[in-house]
Prior knowledge:
Chain A has helices spanning 15-26, 47-52, 70-81, and strands at residues 2-6, 32-35, 42-43, 60-65. Chain A has 90 residues and is an alpha+beta fold. Chain A has one domain (2-81): HPr-like (Histidine-containing Protein, Chain: A). Chain A starts with a strand and ends in a 9-residue tail after the last helix. Chain B is globular and about 35 Å long. Chain B has 149 residues and is α/β, with parallel strands linked by helices. Chains A and B meet through helix 1 and helix 2 of A and helix 3 of B. Chain A: Its main location: cytoplasm.
Amino acid sequence: MIRTVLLAGRAGLHLRAASRIAVAAALLPAAVTVRTLDRPAVPADSVLALLSLGALCGTELILEAHGAGAAEALDSLADLFATDLDVAGA
Amino acid sequence: MMPRCRPVLEPRGVRVREHAADRVAAVHRCADVLEELGAVHPAYREAMLDREWAMSTYVGEGVAIPHGLDRSRALVRRDSLAVLRFPDGVEWDGATVTVCVAIAARGDGHVALLSALARILLDPLRAKGLREATDPAEIVGMLNAEDEP
């Protein structure tokens, strides 16, 4: 199962955003991978792997998960990537 | 939006034999070097310390990336990097840091550098190479060369 989302964070996928997403990904019912058009798929629960994508604001992210809980896992991670995590309260 | 100029690491921004008693002292040294490079206003130091306390900048593999806060972007004079190597290690919120990559960035140009650094650290052999490198030119070469997609 695949979902595509555009990165919303104006400052790109930096350390704080990547940390927050990796923690959320580790708690999901299914393992999710993320890739860009330039970079191969990496596990969403690894901070270093997420940073390696070098994703800037507006970068297309392709999320993939399989099996039980995949849809739920993709929904919640897609929501996080589509939120500017630098905005207070986000 | 700020231009996406990528901060480039210069040999004079690399210090291979640093010592720090603790994480705070190490962040101060990072701020010292960024100031020496003319990269930041002196007040950037406080932002780096605040950012470090808000959440550790440890990224794994013995590497931390001290930097400022969103609100301290105006204190950056020139997007720059510094690499400080602490051969004896510095206790860092439960981890041991031997390399600090200090970042001063106004826009998102440093995201490419983070990507380059992360790809080095995900490769155990190259991560070890970065931690143990003692030649500034070698460190500059590793980080700047990794910048290609």
